[in-house]
Amino acid sequence: MSRVLINLAHAPYEAVIEGALLSRIGSELLRVLENRPSRVFVITVSPVRRRYGKLVERSLRQAGIDHEILVMPDGERAKTMKTVEALAAKMVRMKADRASAVVAVGGGVVGDVAGFLAAVYMRGIPVVQVPTTLLAQVDASIGGKTGVNLVAGKNLIGAFHQPRGVLIDPEVLKTLPEREFRAGLFEALKCGIIRDPEIFEFMEGERARILKRDAAALQWLITASVRVKAAVVAADERESGERRILNFGHTIGHALEAETRYKTFLHGEAVAWGMIAASRIAAATGRLGPAEQRRIEESVVALARLPKIRSNARNIVRRLTSDKKALHGHVHFVLPLAIGKVETVADVPESTVLRMVESLKDKNKR
Ligand SMILES: NC(=O)c1ccc[n+]([C@@H]2O[C@H](COP(=O)([O-])OP(=O)(O)OC[C@H]3O[C@@H](n4cnc5c(N)ncnc54)[C@H](O)[C@@H]3O)[C@@H](O)[C@H]2O)c1
Ligand SMILES: [Zn+2]
């Protein structure tokens, strides 16, 4: 078992990473919620409920916790105000009050929706994150960002609402579809490249064990990645400076997702392309040596077969300036200087960006 403290000034909390934690979720909830909740509202989706609902309910019952399970529609398309409103209306009907708590059991979509619901329900009630995808375990569940999409774009409505605790059971990853699992690995690799060479080396050296979802390997990898995210978030709770390094691979990744209307790439896969692009930009601008650039690129492509890039490079680059994270029209790139060290750069010439995005298509030929 490992515990990682997310040391925020006003609301410190812990992530607990342990196999079979889900079967003890009831007692864990009572431990992390400082006041015993009048009732717990578990927000989940049917693929997760089908597999783990009974386990969760049994544990809640054993702990004597009054609870309701609310199933929301699955998938990114359900990450909307409409879903939040429907859940809130159900909670009102079920007499949820300010002493109730929300528990998010699912992937990043459930975490973002349930987190936002908890942030706004009666102006805020506690939430506990119980992430069940690799992406949510290493990334989305930590840091308190919550929100939903608008037709105009992703994550445009949201709030910071830190969870009271994050309960991570790596065993639930056994049932995750292969593609989702591999896409999540890219966020772990990102943690290695931006801040922790040990993660990077572990993912190079123990790749076979990781891909086989060996329990001990996943326990180590998740813990190390959560540590990176926790450290970055604690240094910059509201994303003004340091936290931007978490966007490594995301500048071009987001553009690629948007350009393909979120249909071609899973988020992690788009980030994988973005990490290759960023490392090539770093090499092209003399920040990263060619050998380390190759090492980064090889470690990315070894984790999954990425869907090919068929979009026009110019259209992808045009998307960059319209990104929510482009400050005053300047596109910020997080570029590696070495494995484990990155820098944020605002003055990469557009021609270089274009050339490097275009160059990604050489990988299409594999
Ligand atoms: N808040 C943040 O800081 C943050 C960070 C990164 C990503 N996100 C958000 O996270 C979302 C993506 O999350 P995701 O990749 O987890 O996708 P997801 O939540 O859609 O889950 C992917 C699929 O896996 C299924 N699933 C979940 N757990 C499972 C399990 N244990 N076994 C079998 N199937 C399971 C889900 O039902 C779903 O169909 C995006 O909306 C993104 O914006 C948020
Ligand atoms: Zn991401």
Structural topology:
Elements: E1 2-6, E2 13-17, H1 25-32, E3 40-45, H2 46-62, E4 67-72, H3 81-93, E5 101-106, H4 108-120, E6 127-131, H5 134-140, E7 145-150, E8 153-160, E9 165-168, H6 178-195, H7 197-205, H8 207-211, H9 215-235, H10 250-259, H11 267-284, H12 290-301, H13 313-320, E10 333-338, E11 341-345, H14 350-359
Parallel strand pairs: 2-9, 3-4, 3-5, 5-6, 6-9
Antiparallel strand pairs: 1-2, 7-8, 10-11
Helix pairs in contact: 3-4, 5-6, 5-9, 6-7, 6-9, 6-11, 10-11, 10-13, 11-12, 11-14, 13-14
Residues 139, 187, 250, 267, 271 line the site of zinc ion.
Description:
The protein has 366 residues and is α/β, with parallel strands linked by helices. Helix content is 46%, strand content 17%. The chain contains 14 helices and eleven strands. The chain has helices at residues 25-32, 46-62, 81-93, 108-120, 134-140, 178-195, 197-205, 207-211, 215-235, 250-259, 267-284, 290-301, 313-320, 350-359, and strands at 2-6, 13-17, 40-45, 67-72, 101-106, 127-131, 145-150, 153-160, 165-168, 333-338, 341-345. The strands form three sheets. A seven-stranded mixed sheet has the order 1-2-9-6-5-3-4, with helices on both faces. It has a two-stranded antiparallel ribbon with strand order 7-8. It is globular and about 60 Å long. The structure holds nicotinamide-adenine-dinucleotide and zinc ion (ZN).
